[in-house]
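Continuing the series of single-chain predictions for the mutant panel. This is the parent chain; the variants come on the following pages.
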Amino acid sequence: MPRSPKIYVKACINGARTPDQHPALPVTPEQLAAEAVAAHAAGARAVHMHPKTGDGVDSLLPEQVDAAVAAVRHAAPGLPLGVTTGFWALPDAQQRRKAVESWTVLPDFASLNWHEPGSPELAEVLLGRGLGVEVGIFHAEAAQSWAASEIAPHCLRVMIELGADSDAATADDLLAMVAEARSPAPVLLHGLDESCWPLLEHAGVRGVQTRIGMEDTLRLPDGSTAADNAALVSAAVDLLSR
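Parent structure:
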């Protein structure tokens, strides 16, 4: 599908969801690779994924991360690829840092939720390994802390990540706070479930990057269940192209 240079959609193809929530949720390296290829063909410019154990639980351990990244790399050479560092997947700051240090097949970037324990230190590890840092800002306190940090000038992307009950006004408040930091990184705005499509549309209005995929919603704008990530990406590109 042709993509306007003004539209930047990243595909978030699974998130912390588990297979019982949708039969097409990718879990295995092969499934992740197939969904990444399909999402890219549908218009996604980059892919973000959560490597998982066989039962669909998020993992930061090198066994799962290396296999998932290698599979996508083989299937889609050159596609910008990122993985999670979510604290819930390994809820110990020191163990999380050691796991990331043990990755041998590296993605291009990793998401890092600034409010989670040990995130500033983990950002240094990621940057030291040559990985881009996509910092996740969930609320005003995190925005203020990140803006005052030494990491702010060195991020690949700043993601304003809002919950299901958030709205455009909340997004605008955080967009203003992030802008005041004067980071050179582009900003990405996205919501979750009920707020997903309204905030994606608002990202288009504000001229910032956005994302879509089964991590953020399982439903298309009309409320029907999406068949897969490619369907979500296609719907997002169509909406932003209007």
